[in-house]
Amino acid sequence: MDNYVVIDTMCPGSFGVTLFVKDREAGLDHTLKKVECVDESRANQALHEALCLLNVNHSNFVRYRELFVSWDRNISSVMLSMVMDCPCVTSLKTVIDSHREKKKKFKKKIIQMFLGQMVDALAYLHNRDILHRNLKPSNILMTDALMFRIFDFGTATTTADRAKLQRRIKDSSKCWMAPESARLLQWSNKSDIWSLGCVLLDMLMCHMLDEEAFLSQLSQIRKDLTPLDSIRSKNLHKILSIMFNPNPNRRASVWILVNETFVKDCVILCGSSPNTMNKTPQGFTAPPFHEGFDSVLEFMMTYTDIEAVQLSVLSYLLQEERNVLERLSDVVEAVTFAMMSHSGSACVQLSSCQVLHYLLTAGQHSGKKDCLYGENVVSFVLKAVQNHPKHVELLENAFSVLFHISTNEKACEMLAKLGGIQVALNTLRTYPQKKGIVISSCKILRTALAIGSGAPDSLATALETVCSVGQMNLQDVVVTESLCAALKSLTMHGLYEEKHTETATHFLMRALRVHTCHSGVVNHVFAAMANLVKSSETAALRLLSPNDESGVPFILAVREHHSEDPKVTESFCCFLNQLIQHDAVVPKLLAENIQDVLEQTVKQFVSSAEIALLAQQTLSKVMSLNDVDPAVK
Q: Looking at the structure, do residues 213 and 319 belong to the same domain, yes or no?
């Protein structure tokens, strides 16, 4: 201490006093933080813990130059002294206070620069197992060039001194601390994330609330997230939500944050690379499988950043059928955290989708499935598809999950809102001969259209895609049935140009010829034909005269092959009912004695009111047309 001359003294902080000093020999100005310790043993322990700060070399941290233990005669106490650089810049608290007084909002770029630099800085620290423990606006400096620099670290020994904490820390200071830190004196890298969230929230709300009101909001956020309702930015609202989870095991880490697109863009804006922020874990053990399901799940949530842990536990979850269903909401939360933390890992995404698929199919009788249909599940599975467009096995599993999710009306609406239908069509075009992808994509399309959650950007393009893929898969009856079903749903929506109508009718007739004996294909073909004919006379003529040869005898022969099948018969009657609305095709139908077919259908399905009524109505229309057109008799 004799080497330094005190120039000025700041107000005491939470854990000590800060002095501005000048080095007698070098003539340089420094900041000197003195932290009171219980005794020399504790001081030496704190010194040992703080030595790592001398190696912190990052543009967003104030450099530590010297650490030593000294005796303060004025208060008769041993002190840990930490000498830092003394940049002549303003604290973020001063800037926030100025904005608060003027009711001025921080510019978007300042928020982005702050968030990007802080995430980069904390990734640097946490990757070296260093915690800050005391992050708040007064411990962050801000330059005119939008450079933010952190200083005033805490150590484990000094922050664990409960008596001193209660004596020195004001209630206002506790507001910046994570719940587990203020209440239990427990710190982790997740505690720094909570504190960073508090600083970010202050920057976003200072123009609306005075300091007392804002500190009240920080206290409230420990109970619920209602203070975030005033945050209009969807991206920032989401990021703050995962930073403010009261359970540190489930709170976002810096590596989870950097996987968020908005945060990643902020980091890039600051000139850093998100790819260099990977966690390099040391010293963790394998999941405690011998301790039971609860311990393994807790371990998974604790080590969300470690890919090996996530893969190991995801594999374990697939074998724990009863337990995963009993703890459904906790398992879904853990799985979605894994997907969020490791969006770049196809292995984690695949295993996660496999677990979700099991939960959706095996858990259908559990009665607690709402958590499977939330926005997180839908968005993370969609992101898995978009981030790994060439991983076929992952795509097959992901689309299977999305199909099961789409059977829930609200989830299907969310899927459509997030562009899921278009994603399914794009993937269908990319992998037209991958059976699993084709079938699941078609199911998603059918379900979304049936629920009315929205059609693809271009119905015509979707129709052409389905028909094109159908032509490539005509020999596979299961795939063809799925494509015909999708086409049936598409043809219910709107009119098409003549070229699209011809494309659809050509594929439908080919499907009918190749799979004449398959009732599922025939049923969907007749239903799709009815939809096309309803709005297009061109479709009616093309269906009855394909390649200049009458298609009526063939169509009637196919129907006869399935004359006992109620579903096929009903679709066939719907088809006929639409056909007879077009005068140009009636002579062809009458020439094949269509009235006899309809009379037989009425008698055969007299016990089925809907089919009998539909057949009778169609027959009556045919007979009336026959009566007024003697030339046809």
A: no
